[in-house]
Amino acid sequence: MGFAAWDIDRILTFGALPADASLLQGAFDVEAIRIALGGREYIEAEIAGVKAQCWVGGCDEGFRQDMTNLYPMLPFGGNLGVRPPFAFPTDDVIAVSRDLTRLTAMVEAGAGSGRSLRDDNQWMALARALTDARWGALAQVMFVTPLDLQVPINRMPARMADQVSALGDLPTYEAAALADYDAGAEQVHLIAAVYADADLATAAADELAARLAAFNPSALYEEIGVTLDQPLVIPFDGGAVAIAALRYPYAAVEGADFELAAQPGAFYRRWIQSIYQRRFLPLLLSFE
Domain segments of the chain: what residues? Predict the structure, then answer.
C-alpha cells in the first residue's frame, strides 16, 4: 500500500462491518501510496475537497467484492477483493471506509464543515478525562454506549443471571469507555462513564468500583497484585464523569516465570473479550 505497519503511530476504528471506518495517523509518503494503489487499479480522485484514491470503478464501489481479484496482503478487505476508497485529509492522516457516505462525513468533520463529536460536551468531557496525565500514557481505549453492552435476562446463561442478581443499581449513562495505560512500573485499566448529573455520577462511581472489585476473572487479582483505586468523579460544565480503575505491576523480566495475566494489557483484553461475548457486567444496566 506504499506504507508499512510501523509507519502508523495511532489508529482509530469505529462502526460495524462492513461499513466500519478507520483513521490512521503516522509518517506516510502519500506519493508512494498513490503509486502502490495505482498498481491495484486505483486512480486519483477527490472526496469532500481533499485528495483521495478510489478504485477505477468509482469511489462508491467500496462494498463490491471481486473474488477473482483478491489481494490477501491488502488490509481493509483485500482478502475479499474489496477496494475501499482512501482519503488524505493531511499528509500524516489516512481515512478509509468502504462506505463513501461515512468517509465523506469523516473528512467533513475533520475540516470543521460537518458534524463532529467535538461539538458534544459530554463526549469531549469523557475524552478529556481519559487523557488526564494522572493515569499515565494512554495505550488503547474502547468507547461504548449502553446498547453495545445490554443483554436480555432471558438470554443470559444461568451462571451469569446469578452474577447479575448480585449487582447493585448503576444509573443510566450516556456513553462510557474502557482504557488501558502504561504508568511506568505498573499498568492501569479504567472504566469511565459520563453523566449529565453530578449526583448520578457520584453514585455510579461507587457502583462501578464495587462491580470492578467483583469482576475478577479466574480469581487472579490477588495472584498478580491488583489494587483498586478509590472511585473518582471528574466534573464538567453540564455533568460529570464517573471513573473506577485498577492497577497492577508488569511481569518482572529477569528471573521470572512469566504469567499470562501479568503481561501488558492482560485484564484489559479480558474486558474486551467479555464485551464481545456480552458478559461485561461492570457496565450492564438493565436486566429486563
Answer: 5-116, 120-283
